[in-house]
Amino acid sequence: MGESKKSRNEGDFVAPDGNWGRDIVVEDQGREVELGEWLKERDEKERYEFAARASEGGFRRFHEPTTERFDASTQGDLTTRESSVAHERAILVGVYMPGEGKGAYPLDELAGLAEAARVEPMNYLIQRRAKPDVAYCLGVGKLEELEEMVAYYDAEVVIFDLDLAPSQTRNLEKRLHVKVIDRTELILDVFASRARTREARLAVELAQLEYSLPRLKRMWTHLERQTVGGVGLRGPGEKQLEVDRRIAQKRIVDLKRELDEIHARKTREIAARESSRRVCLVGYTNAGKSTLLNLATDSDVFAKDMLFATLDTRTRRWSLPGWGPVLLSDTVGFVRDLPHHLVASFRATLAEATSADLLIHVADASAYDVVEQIEAAHKVLEQLGIGEKDEILVLNKIDALSSPEELQALLDRYPTAIPMSAKTSDGFAKLTSAASDALSREFWDIYVELPLEDGKTVAALARDGEILSREYDASGIARIHARLPKRAVERLRIVSGITVRLERADAEPYFETRLPGANAE
Description:
Elements: E1 25-28, E2 31-34, H1 35-40, H2 44-57, E3 89-96, H3 108-116, E4 120-128, H4 140-153, E5 157-160, H5 166-176, E6 179-181, H6 183-194, H7 198-212, H8 240-272, E7 278-283, H9 289-297, E8 314-320, E9 324-330, H10 340-345, H11 351-355, E10 358-364, H12 370-383, E11 391-396, H13 404-413, E12 418-419, H14 428-440, E13 443-451, H15 455-464, E14 466-472, E15 477-485, H16 486-491, E16 499-502, E17 509-512
Parallel strand pairs: 3-4, 3-5, 5-6, 7-9, 7-10, 10-11, 11-12
Antiparallel strand pairs: 1-2, 8-9, 13-15, 13-16, 14-15, 16-17
């Protein structure tokens, strides 16, 4: 067989059925064939020999092999286990119940999460069952096949695309003699590697502790019963495991207190910006939210084609044509089966979304599972209690679609969605128009009469909305026609000496206020 004409992309890995790279072309006896087709013509032994050669020639140049090893002599005891999975070779496992794991590549997202954690996926295994096995999650035959894969690839970690019970994790580690983690633990590892601010680090630590607490087992070598004690204290003693649980529980309480303080400060900061309209970008991770923020606000925030590039909220000023400035915020991306305690831990970070006047839901139109991604994002929004908030759905990355029919199929399903590309700015004008219209839904046309010298109130009208016209008369009265959000109109009740009318200049006053010292008639 000749050399491949297309270099391997980071993230491609060998599958049991021989699908590697999906679109790689190879030469074989003077003819060009797809690698997947070439492998299908080979027997199992030849495919695994090819996998071994590919591994030696390609895989390990992307990640240096780790020297840390799992101590198999502990028989599942986590004495030597590290929490991070960076630079380790992994086998990915999917166990799917009926209706789950749809699509040609159901483990693509797990592979992306693994690569985000700097793990090297070597192979994958999929089993479809009515329900997971209580002891091992997998059936007997697939478990034996997994053992062979672990040994063949010298894998150091096995990653499951679902949440495992603590007993299942222990049983699998005893059987496989390698570290076993589930989807939640992998997501937490990715979040931990991405956290940069104090708030994000606290939130990740809290989520990790709440996840680990029911799973505390022999993670240290000192978990025998304590033997020291004084008069009146001798006895069987307290297990070190119980001490560690108590320490973890105390740390959880402390972290929640610190995050509550951060949340309270965030709430005050948001309240201080109440006069400004707030728009928040939400959606699945790696959908292009940060790229859209940069396009809309001419900013330069970090944006990269990777999962969870953003963990902290970034807010910038967005000047909407025909409207004025609004605050546009980018938030942490969502993911399928996002752990509920992780959502709770990032409550302060997601405060911008809960208080926003408008949500722009950004979806990756080029993703094969875009419909499932949209549904997953809506589930997280419901967890936050903002599922009913006004929302604009943006089908981003239309430049990456292979045909117009793909886009039309999505528009048939989501007829009010806005197709665009944040990368090329195609469709962005339509988004700005839709955002202006959405923010205008609760706006009132008002006619305000106020003293000519009250420049502070005039500035507030311009800041909170749009001044359409101004008239001044010789008696020292200014008459202003403006469009303001309802809550901004209600705030005018505290201003002295003004009259506010709705819709028409000659309408009955909506309310009037007196100047200080003026007598009531």
